[in-house]
Amino acid sequence: MFAYLIRRVLYVIPISFGVTVLVFALVHMAPGDPLSAVVPPDAPEEMVQELRKAYGFDKPLPIQYATWLSRVLIGDLGVSVARGRKVTDELTIAVPNTFILAVGGTLLGFTLGAFFGGVAGYFQGRWIDKLATAIAITGISVPHYWLGIVLVIIFSVEMNVLPSFGMGPGGSTAWQWNAENIKHLVLPLITLSVIPMGIITRTVRATVAEILNQEFVQALHAKGLLTYQVLLHVVKNAAPTTLAVMGLQLGYLLGGSILVETVFQWPGTGSLLNSAIFERDLPLLQGTILILAMFFVLLNLLVDIVQSAIDPRMVR
Amino acid sequence: MSRRALDKNQQATVDSAQVAVQSRGYWATVLMRLGQDKVTLVCGAVLLTIILSAVFADAIALVDPYKANMLKRLKPIGTPGFPLGGDEMGRDMLTRLLYGGRLSLFMGVTPVVLALGIGGLLGLVAGFMGGRVNMLIMRVMDVFYAFPSVLLAVAISGALGAGVGNAIVSMTLVFIPPLTRVTESVTTQIRNLDYVEAARASGAGNLIIIRVHVLSNVLGPVFIYATSLISVSIILASGLSFLGLGTEPPEPEWGLMLNTLRQSIYVNPWVAALPGAMIFFTSITFNLLSDGVRSAMDVRL
Amino acid sequence: MNSICKRLRHLPRIIAATAAVAVVAGSLTVSNSARAGGTLRVGMTAADIPLSWGQPDQGFEGFRFMGLMLYDALINWDMSSADKASGLIPGLAENWEVNPNDKTKWTFKLRQGAKFHDGSEFDADAVLWNFDRLFDKNAPQYSARMASLVNFRIPSLVYDAGSNTKGWKKIDKYTVEFTTKAPDSFFPYQICYILLSSPAQFDKTGKDWNKFALNPSGTGPWKLVKIVPRERAEFVPFKEHWDASRQPKLDKVITIPIPDPNARTAALLSGQVDWIEAPAPDAIPKLKERGMVISSNLYPHIWSWHLSRVEGSPWNDVRVRKAANLAIDRAGVKALLGGYAIEAKGHVSPADPWFGTPSFELKYDPAAAKKLMKEAGYGPGNPLQVKIMISASGSGQMLPLPMNEYIQQNLKEIGIDVEFEVMEWQSLLDRWRSGAQSKQAQGAHGINVSYTTQDPYSSFTRFLRCDLHAPSGVNWGYHCNKEIDELLKNASLAFDSKERDRWIAKLHTIEVDQALFIWVVHDVAPRGMTTKVKGFVQARNWFQSLTPVHME
How far is B161 from chain C (nearest CA, A)? Predict the structure, then answer.
């Protein structure tokens, strides 16, 4: 078991290396000049060449990769071409903002999902089960960014009770856990939690149903054991898989929040990605994707460790 | 082997594959169960209607989906000649939705099919050959797996640029790792079964073993797993178009239509909501259908 | 009795709790609206806060909501009136004149007593320092990025990188002399884009432009007090601003980037901002229905198709060019934009002193257009096929897709079949820079980029002068006409503004009579704002001033 853990942790190293190669390749296969988006149309060619040299875009790709990697290893993610700010500075602001959304979305999704799923699994086959399952399937079938737009129209534009964009009246750096700021969190959180809610409901339902259908549980029930003890048993057995799914969902939300952040102009990593793509800001794009992927790698590691700790059979 | 465990869907696929190998009347049972599941049958019918209407859009539609008519911009539902209203360029919404179905379904199904082919092949090879080949293939998959799917799709699309072809490439790359993984798991399990071992021992060539025993038993369950990815693919494709990375104007496609109709939400909200409704309905029927087939195949429930 | 006493004991705590709840409830109900009378929140179309270090990015919106708020140039624009053309007025230079004996030399007399936000004095040294910032690579304040943002706007200024010869010289503490490469009367129009940052502040912030950007200092009417990248910038009035007529009335301005037009509209309707730039035309009826005010005015902008005059281009026939111009139903395009456009009669509007007296009138006359096409050899059985490059969005492009499709319909009626190549805004600008003969153009016959007509070089010279085609300039279509070149030269040598305007008017007359572009409409820069926003004067300029604005 210990050997497995060590191997699993060490495995992160080649994966991370592979990730850096993939990120670099992805970003640099983009056609077009990396500077053309940020230099005004009338700028003369020598000026553009000078800038290109300043950013190192004139060197061959493998050298650019090596330079970038060596800097990443000491924590320097480069400088954004479009804004002149350090990529690490941009991410320092954006990552916590996305964390707030992602963690909140996962928690909300998990709470609703566990509730709906538990109820559905317990009352298998009855109408409650069908209703809960319908809600879950709706959650994963609706284009959530579109749901976000609709919510904005209803609650911001028409009813004027919730704000339509942004992270707070003072901007994200002035974030506090007070009513004013939490109002800004409501709609994006609901929008983001829809898919995790659906997935977790289905997972919990399947797990709960499976456990309840085990013969010995039915035997326990027949013996007249209190329902709550059965429930405890169910929770204990459903926990590992559900936690694993929740962990993965957190990872997906961290990396996949771009659509919701675009709709709500939430100043997180998704918005950074969006502007980096359209402004062809290679350093920012590389840095952001790398950090998000690394979070996911570490999250996977955590999930694997927790899963194998809870259920040694899961070790492969 | 230090690798993350399969998720619930994938595990169910692997399990059902095992059973499929072992019992003969299995598929007959599956069909019978399906016949009794009304919800799944209805979904199947609805889906068939959506697909057929998209395929035969030429026959059903009355007008050209590209023909703009500025005087008919954002006309409400029920305007004569525009049964579902006019879009922001005055094109008939019904026609655009029908033709849009083509591109949306195409972008939903094609990446999954391609990923099934490529990923399935890779998984088969990895599962069957084992050893170093297996390690090489699965490790490379792990690197791709290190990215959350939306991030990977957006990053690849962002790099390649907008366009249907680029979006399909990017989504195929996103779906290959999970399909490889499932296929590899299933193949490994089947390969290790007693009677396959026996076949090998008796001198049967690898190709024959693959064709006769492995392929037929792997394909079914993996195929069903793939269909559950279709609804994800449709929504992902529409999301890419929404960001400006997928289909480009003036092609009709539901995700792109959602994007271009955003501005019109104040003038004609119902028309602006139609493409979203189409994505929702198609996605939900795919989901329910694949759920239904999977539960018919699941011997444990 | 005892139980009542017991309960009364809790009374103070209950009162305190109720009071606390009341206070919290009260603060909850105060929505995120402005401090009464004082704060204006603006939703911009830019994707990010424009650079605050001197020369802004984000195009002209960067000047509007950052550059010209914090800084002045030697020559400023007159933004005080909505009813007349907006011209140049003294900025940090009180007057300027060309040396009558050597017309490549300009003497600028600087304003005395003007202060930067950090308290330091403005003088000739500051001017030289700022020009070094853009050209002299050896200067510690040199910034390649800033240079790339603005140097192309002052092509006439002398600077030789090899010998470090500079076209700017100090005469005395308040006098600077500039040298141009050749006599050029358009020079003042170029100088107005160079914004002057404080050298003292640069030294104070450790000679680092990125640090300067967080704590900028200029001579403009506003000071930057807070900046959250990508989210907001906050400005307060600079009480010691040198121009008494431009003292800000507001307590604070907050600018917020909201690039999506839909989100901007929602932001105004939900009360999160008080003012938005460029609302989506489709949303304007809704804004009005909710009581918002839409401010608009003519300004030097033209939406047109820039035509290729390369060998073999169908647009080389003046009859085809005229026919296309007569085929367009400009009133229909205006209706598409909800009425927020002005039908074009030329490259500039008839109200402009540069309009001249063209005899060819731009109007909707399909019959005349068809006749011209017939004369040119085209007809129903022999339509003309053209390919035009357009974008789906972009600054100043208005609603490119609906507008272009409408024009495509119009042109089809007279026998011109248009095929569009739709691309992203930045890609379109790339193609624009590379010219009609480049590989990227792929045989396109026209390109749809909207233009400023605020100064003569930008309006005419850069598109029409024979030598300014790619890669030296943006004469995308390789237009060449000796007569027009001659007129351009005369205009650039006419140092009396009335004389210069006459030459340009002659030039424009020929331009229209030869239908050199396909002109459609002028934008009117609609802006949405709540009724609480008072005092705004929308000048006929790409730039605007927020100083007279106050909140009710």
Answer: 10
Residue to test with chain C: of B242, B263, B268, most C Cβ within 10 A: B263
Of the partner residues A153, A206, A255, the one whose CB lies closest to the CB of residue B150: A255
| Chain A residues within an 8 Å CB radius of C432 | 41
Instruction: Look at residue B199 and tell me if it is in a domain.
Output: yes
Cβ–Cβ of A19/B147 closer than 8 Å? yes
pTM of the model: 0.84
DSSP one-letter code for A75: T
Q: Do C228 and A164 touch (CB under 8 A)?
A: no
| Rg from Cα positions in chain A | 24
pLDDT tens by residue, B4-42:
556 666 777 777 666 655 555 666 777 777 777 777 888
**Which CATH number is B228's domain given?**
1.10.3720.10
Write out the H or E segment, with its range, that includes residue C106: strand C105-110
- Average pLDDT per run of 10 along chain C, which is 552 residues long? 51 50 43 59 92 90 95 95 91 94 95 95 96 94 89 90 91 95 94 96 94 94 93 94 93 93 90 93 90 94 96 94 96 91 95 94 95 90 92 85 90 92 83 88 92 92 92 90 94 92 96 96 95 94 94 90
Provide the residue count of chain B.
301
State the Cα–Cα distance between residues C383 and C530, nearest whole angstrom.
50
What is the average pLDDT across A54-62? 78
Q: Which residues of chain B have pLDDT under 70?
A: 1-9, 16-27, 61, 70-71, 194-196, 200, 203-217, 297-301
Q: What is the mean pLDDT of residues A119-145?
A: 85
Taking chain A, what is the end-to-end CA distance rounded to the nearest angstrom? 11
Q: Which of B70, B74, B247, B265 should one mutate to test binding to chain C, selecting the residue with the greatest count of C CBs within 10 A? A: B70
Chains with 3+ CB–CB pairs under 8 A to B are: A, C
B24 is a domain residue? no
Angstrom distance (rounded) from CA C504 to CA C356: 8
pLDDT of residue C17: 46
**pLDDT confidence of residue C227:** 92
Percent of chain C residues past pLDDT 70, beyond the cut? 93
Closest CA to A258 of A248, A249, A246, A267: A267
Tokens of C548: 């007279």
Q: Which domain holds residue B249?
A: 31-62+79-297
Chain B residues inside the 8 Å CB shell of C260 = 262
> β-strands C301-307, C517-523: how paired?
antiparallel
Cβ-contact B73, B121 below 8 angstroms? no
For residues C147 and C76, what is the distance between their CA atoms, to the nearest angstrom? 20
Kind plus residue range of the DSSP H or E element containing A166: none
Q: Which of C45, C390, C406 to mutate to test the interface with B (most CBs of B within 10 A)?
A: C406
Q: How many domains does chain B have?
A: 1
C377 CB-near residues (< 8 Å, 6+ apart): none
Angle at A99 between CA A98 and CA A100, to 5 degrees: 90
Specify the residue for token string 């990593």: A269
Retrieve residue A256's tokens. Answer: 């996949």
Is B26 contained in some domain? Answer: no
Could you give the CA distance from residue C317 to residue C314 in angstroms, rounded to a whole number?
Answer: 6
Task: Search chain B and give the residue with CA nearest A290.
Answer: B147
pLDDT at A315 over 50: no
CA distance C241 to A210: 75
Q: State the complex-level ipTM.
A: 0.82
DSSP code string of A282-304: HHHHHHHHHHHHHHHHHHHHHHH
Measured between beta carbons, the chain B residues lying within 8 angstroms of C408 are 68
Task: Assign C293 to helix, strand or coil.
Answer: strand
Task: Please name the residues in contact with A18: beta carbons below 8 A apart, sequence gap of 6 or more.
Answer: B139, B140, B142, B143, B146
Asked whether residue B120 is domain-assigned, the answer is yes
